[in-house]
Amino acid sequence: MKKEEFMKIVRSKAKADLSEQEAAMFESIGDGIERALQMEQAERNKEIEKLTGMLGAMEDGKSLSDIIRTLGAKIDAVEAQSKRSLSAGEKFQLRRALEAKKDEIMQVMRGEKATPWGLEFRAKRAASALMQTTTVLTGASAINTDNVFDDMEITVIKYPVNFIGDAINSRQVSVVPASLKWKEQITAGTGAVGVIAEGVEKTLVDYKFTWKYAYRKKYAGRIEFTEETEIDFEQLTLDIIDMFETDVLRAYNAGLLADIVAWAPAYVSTALDGTLTKPTILNVVNAGKLAVAVNNYNADTLIINPADYAGVQNMQNADGDPIFVPDAALFPGLRVFVTNNIAQGTVLVGEGNIVKEQHGAFILRSGIYGNQFIENEKTIVGELYSVIKLPTESKKGWCKLTVADVLAALEKE
Prior knowledge:
The chain has 413 residues and is of the alpha+beta class. The chain has 13 helices and 13 strands. It folds into 2 domains: 3-109, no CATH class; 164-410, Major capsid protein gp5 fold.
């Protein structure tokens, strides 16, 4: 509620026109109440009762208590939409300021004081003691200057969007098996289907298989903190737990990509080798797509480091003029995943559906061990189980390219 709205309420309740002194008084009160718009309801009710008891009734039937209570009801109605509240220190200083002006307010109400008056207050706050949380929140000191805003929102490190859920065939299951076992074809089979002349023996085609295994992995970590930290910095503790959960998920994503990078075969050669005058990283990616295509797979996924991706967006010709290529045309047919989890100078191209992965829900446990009970300490453990299937034969559907080496191979002598 703005001061102007407050004055409308005051004038609507007054049975006679306000004098200059009365108007000045109510405008000053309106300024203070406008700042207190988002007080918690219980605290606000206490302050209203104190204020109305202190000011009493105005002459000529104008009841200041009625006016303030009406204002309180209207504040209740808009409380959910408010976005700022006074700190405890500001509320204390506002109450003291009103109490200090009590006599002056009463003089204006009785018409004994003709000089308009104003209401001003400032709030100072000092940082709370950190107890044993110095390893959590560092660089803290008591700040007692007037013009300081204590922003309690935490700024965390920015990370790129995780790619695993979209880049591969990944699904969540209720229980992640300890291992996966499957039959995989071996390329060492004999014979091939072909055209056979009449009366000639058909070629014997022999398929061979072998058992393959994949074992479950657990991505986990733990954090420890004192009970005082949880009591004194409840919101900070919740934010730390949320950050911890995110770190476990990041480790899980990074681990899966590391497995895929280690599994994917390196680029050897394609028909593009030695055919390009001035090859770029776009040509490197196309060479990877071709390497996958010759093995009868269809590459639909590209994983690239942010630095390499920026190099693609800022290409120049031999004269230094920029070469503009729209993002939609940079890598046609590929879903691009830009991540720092792949090294700069290496790109990965492949058919995402080949890689199959199962993972469980994120598990968060709280407990104590050792002497933590008598030391008022807690431990929180976070973990996630995952098993990834990387068939040996299917690796032909992926290609790992070292940019510098492939550029050299593609360049025409």
